[in-house]
Amino acid sequence: MAPLLEVKNIRTYFHTQDGVVKAVDGVSYDVNRGETIALVGESGCGKTVSALSILRLVAEPAGKIISGEILFNGVDLLKLSDAEMHKMRGARISIIFQEPQTSLNPVLTIGRQISEGLEFHKNMSLHDGMLEATRLLKLVGIPHPERRVYEYPHQFSGGMRQRAMIAIAIACQPQLIIADEPTTVVDVTIQAQLLELIRNITKELDTALILITHNLGIVARYAKRVFVMYAGNIVEYGQALDVYHQPCHPYTAGLLASVPRLDEPRKNRLQPIEGQPPDLIAPPAGCAFQARCTYSLPQCSKEKPVLMQITPGHFAACWISQRGTKPWQK
Amino acid sequence: MGRFIIRRVLWLILVLFVVLLITFILMHLVPGGPWDREKALAPKVIEALNKRYGLDLPLWRQFVNYAWGVLHGDLGISYSYSDRTVVSILAHGIPKTATLGILAFVVAQAIGIPFGVAAALKQNSAVDYASVLFSTVFASIPGFVLGILLIVLFAVVLHWLPTSGWGSIQQLIMPVFCLAALPAAQSARITRASTLDVMRQDYVRTARSKGIMESTVRVRHIFRNSLIPVVTVAGPELANLITGSFIIENLFAIPGVGRLFVQGIFARDYTLIMGGVLFYAITIALLNLVVDILYAAIDPRIRYE
């Protein structure tokens, strides 16, 4: 069966005063029905922009999807009219944003913000929409939903706002939910609760999920496949466990070394990845990670590596691992 | 909310008392008095006048008498408009000034807000540049210059409108426009800036991600939030317009309070000055209260305990 979503070689550029920022520069990935994938990378690597591109919510006119295809159920979203795109957003594909503090409208009740999508997509009345919103709030674990539904975002805590965001995202039972760092701004205990909630709900509704995160630690638990992004490109992807245990790109290995682990002695210091990501206005000629890579070969600064299969189902864009070596493996 | 309003009204009474006291002191600190004339009056006459109006009493007694009168709705007798009470003078002028002010306010917002929103939604378009240009021009031209230009054009050259006076709709058009120009320009600028700010907010992106109509996003999510700063400045603006403009009222020969008040100051007409200040203070305080109540209606984060 064809995947639910196929992102094919999209490029999303931003026109700024300093030049064209190639935020997403030829990224491809796919999501199967009901599957959870993770998009991993550090801040500014283009993971959010690639997700916003799916919904065509990149801030115009500065940002623009230059080329590529985004096939959703075989239909190219980039070719849809605005009216057809409106019917996709919220109804078939929805998104949970990173900042629950600023992502909810401060002057509308929580219920109204859940119900407005239902009113538009399911032709519900405001009254029915609010009843449904109450049910959804209960589903995402908000106590006293019948009262809370009439409250405003400032009366909710950070974690509860993010629960309300989840309620908005699942309101119309979409086939795909994009969760853009849904737990970054809440504290650790709430993070786990929210991720469990998202997982349970997507499982129950058989919804596919794109989990965008910079935390490789949570990926192994929630996602089936992982796509690692660096400087606007995907540098490695494969089954979550393979990537986790046998990273084929030094960047992935670096990310893993910088996350604290419970199964290793405490005396090991966390290893940061030295240096800064490259300038996306004028990216270097060879591998984008070359300047920060301790294992780089002469070839790395000349030719840009492409994704190649290293082991079955496990791809990496790295000249070193494509030679069959993994010097970062201990 | 009810308790909030009651408390604010109680505060208002205290504020008004302080305002009156300060005005009273300042008024008596200024050199000169109500009986100064080109040709000095005979000392006997001044003594008689002072006695008649109670100006021979110690200052504190004068103030107490005045304040007592105010509490009973008596603002005293004007010195320059012989034997007319200040209440009747104000009652004559306020309706005209208020009509002018409210009309100007409505015109200003009706022009300023839509222009500001249109400019923000189509940033860097012809509409935007036109709105910035007009708001800069009208914010910089003084009212009396604009008034004279209008009179020259519409009254002298085209003969479409009467030059001045009070009583017909035609006579209202030019003064209302002159008064509205500056607040319209300010409203347009503030609306544009706040709409641009709100458009970049995360919650607008959230609203778009729900797929709802773009018009709904604009009205429900953008417009309502962008109105908050507009309301903030609208209150003082309205107070300013209602209390009248000496220049515009003089230019168009409108017998409103703005003109009366300034004439009262020149004549050291103590009771008229106090009456005018009282009117200004009450208007500004009440409109600020209205703005605060409106605030709570627009923005649920604001609650008065």
In short:
The complex is a heterodimer of chains A (330) and B (305). Chain A is of the alpha/beta class. Helices cover 31% and strands 23% of the residues of chain A.
Describe this structure in words.
The complex is a heterodimer of chains A (330) and B (305). Chain A folds into 2 domains: 5-223, Rossmann fold; 229-322, no CATH class. Chain A is 31% helix and 23% strand. Chain A has 11 helices and 12 strands. Chain A has helices spanning 47-54, 82-88, 110-121, 126-139, 145-148, 158-170, 188-205, 216-222, 240-245, 250-257, 319-322, and strands at residues 5-16, 19-31, 36-40, 63-72, 75-76, 93-96, 176-180, 208-213, 225-230, 233-239, 308-311, 314-316. In chain A, the strands form 2 sheets. Chain A has an 8-stranded mixed β-sheet with strand order 6-7-8-3-9-10-12-11, sandwiched between helices. In chain A, helix 3 crosses helix 4 and helix 6 packs parallel to helix 7. Chain B is an all-alpha fold. Chain B has helices spanning 2-29, 43-52, 59-71, 86-121, 126-140, 143-157, 169-199, 202-209, 214-242, 246-251, 257-266, 270-298. In chain B, helix 9 packs antiparallel against helix 12 (270-298). The termini of chain B are close together. The mean pLDDT of chain B is 86. The chains are: A alpha/beta (330), B mainly alpha (305). The interface between A and B is medium-sized, with 31 and 22 residues.
